[in-house]
User: Fold this.
Amino acid sequence: MRELIKKDQLVTIVPQDFKNSNKGKILEVGMDGFRMELKYKPEGLIKNHICDFYSMTDNGYLYFESYIKELENNVISIANPVKHRFLQRRKFTRIKFMEDLELIYDNVTHPIRTLDISAGGMKIQTKDNVDMEKEYKVSLKLSNEQIINCKYQLIRVEKGDNGLYTISGRFTNLSNIDKMTLVQFCMKKDMENLNK
Assistant:
């Protein structure tokens, strides 16, 4: 792990309650872990509770799980993780996500079927000829407790022989919390699929 994380590297920490996500800079790296200074007051971060960690490295986007050993003011000590992995080369992990949703602009609603999703955007199919120039509202239901309301901007549209339009697009106004929620949701689903 010591060759993957370095002093001054930026790391995002995501506990079970996403609202308490934080980020910080690594102060020092030791044999059994590393210390980092958080940007924000560490509310909701608890010693010995497993959290998700993300960091950009020379080898790509690093992901691992670990726990906080010590917590003093804005400085925390993190234990070395048992294992780590690099995310896909694309910026965000993309997973298969089949749901019936709606794109909404003013009073016009287009029924859609999602094909895949990431924290950056999603691929969908629809029978409707959707206007490329408009930005649509969409509600993503990840679970009964997690619904993300955001805007969706079309990037590419292809019409298939079956009369369906396949559309790729991106999310344009995700809050940091919603983005981290999607990152974590996609990562967990991806890992579940790998372990099947």
Summary: The radius of gyration is 19 Å. The mean pLDDT is 86. The CA atoms of residues 29 and 35 lie 7 Å apart.
